[in-house]
From TrEMBL:
InterPro entries linked: AKR2_Oxidoreductase, NAD(P)_OxRdtase_dom_sf, NADP_OxRdtase_dom
Gene3D superfamilies for this protein: NADP-dependent oxidoreductase domain (3.20.20.100)
Pfam families linked: Aldo_ket_red
NADP-dependent oxidoreductase domain boundaries: 16-212
This protein's name: Aldo/keto reductase
Superkingdom, taxonomy of origin: Bacteria
Length: 290
């Protein structure tokens, strides 16, 4: 498994990251299957695991904790908080540590910064950033992170205000065409040594006919890792095989992919860039005060 350094930190994480949102009953994955999938991933060299307390009311975190039992020193665990205040965020972390069966997480991120008021809330007095800083000082977390699906300008502003260790952002080939994190965030992040983690790589499954090209597109960007959600062992094995075969995509291959997938650049497909999840209308970029 190819590895890359984690931004400013030389620690190596696997090119293929494990997105744990789907190892849950909601996606027809049993606890037994989830544990087997996780342990197979570690065996194959995957050492980056991403989860959140909001994924199936904590079931994802619980299963990550069970699957990684006895393997904690081999892996990097990232989880999230949707809380915008210090107190709500710390409450999230307390529950996450319990479900994950660990006394620390490697990376804790403020999740889904979508509107200017989200950004202002986390930076305000008593905001969530205070919780992350406190948790790091107490040894409960190692790295401070942020995530966004929709508006790259907000995350670009966030890393201007604070030296975040990492950012989880939407970097599918479809995202290339509208509100592009690849264009409007990644260069600044790389310059500042912020580790970039790619998500939405398969466009909620819409890029399945172009699986190999979709993975190569995102992995060819200056990302630390990209997280892929799986709910079946065969899905994991396919991702592992693609990671093993990976070679960077050249410009001609990229253009050929864009020509084929361009009709999918719609708000009902890129739901994370829609006004609302099921709206079918594009998110409208708000006017920013900074």
């Amino acid at each position: 498994m190819q590895t890359r350094s984690f931004g400013r930190d030389p620690h190596q994480v696997s090119l293929l990251g494990f997105g744990a949102q789907r190892i849950v009953d909601e996606h027809d994955c049993t606890e037994e299957e989830a544990i087997a999938i996780i342990r197979r991933a570690v065996e194959a060299g995957v050492n980056y695991f991403d989860t959140a307390p909001s994924y199936s009311d904590g079931q994802s975190e619980t299963r990550v904790g069970l699957g990684l039992k006895g393997l904690r020193d081999k892996v990097w665990i990232a989880t999230k908080t949707g809380g915008r205040t210090r107190d709500l965020a710390l409450k999230d972390l307390e529950g996450s540590l319990k479900r994950l069966q660990t006394d620390y997480v490697n990376e804790w991120r403020m999740h889904n910064i979508m509107q200017p008021h989200d950004l202002e809330a986390i930076f305000a007095k008593g905001g969530a950033l205070e919780a992350l800083i406190e948790a790091k000082e107490q040894g409960l977390i190692r790295k401070i992170s942020i995530s966004g699906h929709t508006d790259p300008r907000l995350l670009a502003e966030a890393i201007r205000r604070y030296p975040f260790d990492s950012a989880l952002v939407a970097l599918s080939a479809l995202d290339h065409f509208i509100y592009s994190f690849a264009h409007d965030f990644v260069p600044q992040a790389v310059e500042k040594g912020v580790a970039v983690i790619g998500m939405k790589v398969m466009g909620l499954g819409k890029l399945a006919p172009w699986t190999e090209q979709a993975l190569r597109y995102t992995w060819s960007l200056p990302v630390t890792t990209s997280i892929l959600g799986v709910s079946k062992m065969e899905e994991l094995e396919a991702d592992l095989a693609a990671a093993d075969r990976f070679v960077p995509m050249n410009d001609i291959e990229r253009v050929e992919l864009f020509q084929e997938i361009m009709p999918l650049v719609r708000p009902d497909v890129l739901r994370w860039k829609a006004r609302e999840w099921m709206a079918g209308e594009w998110y409208q970029l708000p006017e920013l005060k900074w």
